[in-house]
Amino acid sequence: MGSGEHNTSKNFILSSLFWLILFTTFGFILAIKFFAPEFLGQSPYLTFGRVRPMHVNGVAFGSLSTGLIGAAYYIVPRLTGTEIETSNPRVSASTVTPVDCVHTYASALAYVDVHSAASAFHSSG
């Protein structure tokens, strides 16, 4: 196994740590809002009803899911004694980044949203 054997898992784990720090900060803002509801009250984007879903979804999807994917990219090759390879030799698995995963997830959500809205429109008319 080469020197860059864990680039993919390292990228996912580092991304997971970034999201964990970011969304834990939102959790800290929520904790402050429990005791001082007027904290950051002048900003409509930082109300309790908006910050709580950002915290919960960010920790669940941003941190935990990317951390588990990174752990899988580390553990599975170690357990099986193989390397992560692709069919295209010019593209390595280490070029897969969490941004690619977020883009794929957002594209899938947009696809589902557009098609569910279209089917709702056609069924109502």
Structure description:
By secondary structure, this protein is mostly helical. It has helices spanning 7-35, 48-80, 98-124. It has one domain (7-95). It is 71% helix and 0% strand. Helix 1 packs antiparallel against helix 2. The relative contact order is 0.15.
Radius of gyration: 20 Å
Provide mean pLDDT, rounded.
74
Distance between the ends:
60 Å
> What's the number of extended β-strand segments?
0
Largest β sheet strand count, sense and barrel closure: none
Into which percent range does the helicity of residues fall? over 70%
Strand content: under 5%
Number of domains: 1
Class by helix and strand content? mainly alpha
Number of helices: 3
Approximate shape? elongated
Low-confidence stretches: none
The ordered H/E elements are: HHH
How do you describe this structure in short?
The chain is mainly α and 125 residues long.
Which features does this protein show?
125 residues; mainly alpha
Indicate the topology.
Layout: H1 7-35, H2 48-80, H3 98-124
Helix pairs in contact: 1-2
